[in-house]
Design a protein that fits this description.
Layout (H helix, E strand, L loop, with lengths): L1 H63 L5 H25 L1 H11 L10 E4 L6 E3 L5 E3 L7 E4 L4 E4 L2 E5 L5 H15 L2 H28 L5 H8 L20 H18 L21 H17 L3 E2 L3 E2 L7
Antiparallel strand pairs: 1-6, 2-3, 4-5, 7-8
Helix pairs in contact: 1-5, 2-3, 2-4, 4-5, 5-7, 7-8
Length: 319
């Protein structure tokens, strides 16, 4: 009787353990799904915040241009801001403390290639070994980076750059705005700033949304379809995904550019001999606006990318 009850207890215990293992596995699977969804939503939110910040920065600078003269006051302030931004970038490239401060404040607005990585420097030793085999500390090799937090201070092993971060798009944004203020009339500079603030984020938002909905196709894949070339990885030609600029984003960029130009520069008909526009005032025909919109979309599509003959193009915020 005792053996029978003992065997029954052992079998019951095994069943309970099996049920617990199955429950824990299903719980882990269920937990992993929301995490993936959360990571994807976080990534989309980061892209959205960067584009919103891009638009707000341009509109604020545009508003300041009506308070301060664009030249020389506005140009001077933009030049100083560009130089200060470049100086901070150099500091964070060589100093991990500066890099930590920068990433804590602006990390959510950076792309992956604008972050960079650090790694432990194995070539730096913390001790020197003397002839008698005893290890003695060396002043020249035991330099450790001290990171000060609000509550604790701790030592960290010497580290060096694994990958150097690229200049953020905000630097090229300030540099391009400074050059536009210097080289072009006020109306042209304001129009270009408005296009940069609205058309560029709009292209990214519309392109990403249409891609998620399955309504988009990249220019690269369209070129492959026109030339009847399939990718070697076996992807079907009907897919609209893939990296790079998309058709929907380019159309949104061109349309936004045309609307921004209409906001500042009046329109005239080509055969309008009696124009009511004052002398010396800029004006564009509808065909000219279409051409500018197409050129802007083309520039946004090829900017920052490697072309076979030309090489790597400059950032779209500068072009």
């Amino acid at each position: 009787m005792q053996r029978t009850s003992l065997q029954t207890g052992i079998k019951t215990g095994r069943k309970l353990m099996a049920n617990n293992n199955g429950t824990s596995r299903s719980t882990n699977i269920n937990k992993s799904r929301p995490t993936t969804t959360k990571n994807s939503s976080m990534k989309n939110r980061i892209h959205l915040s960067r584009r919103v910040q891009h638009a707000i920065t341009g509109l604020v600078i545009l508003l300041i241009s009506y308070i301060l003269p664009p030249y020389p006051h506005g140009f001077t302030l933009l030049t100083l801001a560009t130089a200060a931004f470049y100086h901070v970038h150099l500091k964070r490239v060589h100093d991990e403390v500066w890099d930590k401060w920068y990433l804590d404040g602006f990390g959510t607005l950076l792309r992956d290639h604008e972050r960079g990585e650090w790694e432990e420097d194995d070539g730096i030793r913390n001790t020197d070994v003397v002839d008698d085999g005893r290890a003695t500390s060396s002043k020249s090799h035991n330099k450790q980076t001290q990171i000060h937090d609000s509550s604790t201070t701790y030592n960290q092993k010497p580290r060096r750059r694994k990958t150097i971060p690229a200049l953020p798009g905000a630097f090229y944004f300030l540099l391009g705005t400074s050059l536009s203020t210097l080289l072009f009339p006020t109306m042209v500079a304001r129009t270009s700033l408005l296009v940069l603030s609205i058309a560029d984020p709009m292209a990214g938002l519309v392109g990403a949304w249409c891609t998620d909905m399955g309504w988009n196709i990249t220019w690269k894949r369209l070129l492959f379809l026109l030339l009847r070339i399939r990718k070697r990885d076996g992807c079907s030609t009907g897919e609209g995904g893939g990296g790079g600029p998309s058709i929907a984003g380019s159309i949104a960029c061109a349309g936004s550019t045309i609307l921004c130009i209409c906001f500042y520069i009046p329109s005239i008909a080509i055969d309008d001999a009696e124009s009511t526009i004052p002398a010396g005032r800029l004006s564009l025909s509808f065909r000219a606006r279409i051409c500018i919109g197409i050129l802007t979309a083309l520039t946004e599509a090829i900017a920052g990318r490697h072309l076979p003959v030309i090489g790597t193009m400059l950032d779209d915020n500068l072009l």
